[in-house]
Amino acid sequence: MVVVVMGVSGSGKTTVGKLLARRLGWRFYEGDDFHPQANVDKMSRGVPLDDGDRRPWLDNLHRLIERTVAAGDNAILACSALKRSYRERLAGGLPDVRFVFLQAGRELLRQRLESRRDHFMKADLLDSQLATLEEPRDAVVANAALPADEIVGRIRGELHL
């Protein structure tokens, strides 16, 4: 199984994903590590990505998910997965992919992004991420304002992990 922890930048995907992976003894993948350098450069300049920019990134992540599932392994992937079409591309019809949406208010997200150091995703891209976000209907939804421990407990309970 691959659990994709999704949400806009600053929602806690990496924090929650790493903790969940550690608790389950599963591998953790940071989706940002799979961006082509051109995407990182663009976001570092404060320029939002478009669907064309995201396509090769999503394809790379789909191949990772596909290999993980084919090997019978389990993993946690932190990935924004903002649109339904992105989630469909990630899962690609694979049966063992589950999504967890970390839902957060704009102010909490802005505070978190402004407190980050040495990350390419800047707070001024928050509005474009929120505009792009299509909240999932088929995901476990967790309040990103809760402590990571509580979020992980909820995910484990809802997904029976």
Summarize the structure.
With 161 residues, the protein is an alpha/beta fold. The chain contains seven helices and five strands, in the order βαβααβαβααβα. The chain has a five-stranded parallel sheet.
* Count of beta strands: 5
- List the strand order in the largest sheet: 2-3-1-4-5
**Integer tally of domains:** 1
Assembly type of the chains comes to single chain
SSE sequence, one letter per element = EHEHHEHEHHEH
Fourth-level CATH superfamily? P-loop containing nucleotide triphosphate hydrolases
Structural class: alpha/beta
In whole angstroms, the N-to-C terminal distance is 10 Å
Helix percentage range: 40-55%
What would you call the shape?
Answer: globular
Q: Which sheet architecture does the biggest sheet show?
A: 5 strands, parallel
| CATH level 3 topology | Rossmann fold
Mean pLDDT: 92
Q: How large is the count of helical segments?
A: 7
* Uncertain residue ranges: none
The name of the CATH architecture is 3-Layer(aba) Sandwich
Strand content: 5-15%
> How big is the Rg?
15 Å
Output the CATH class name: Alpha Beta
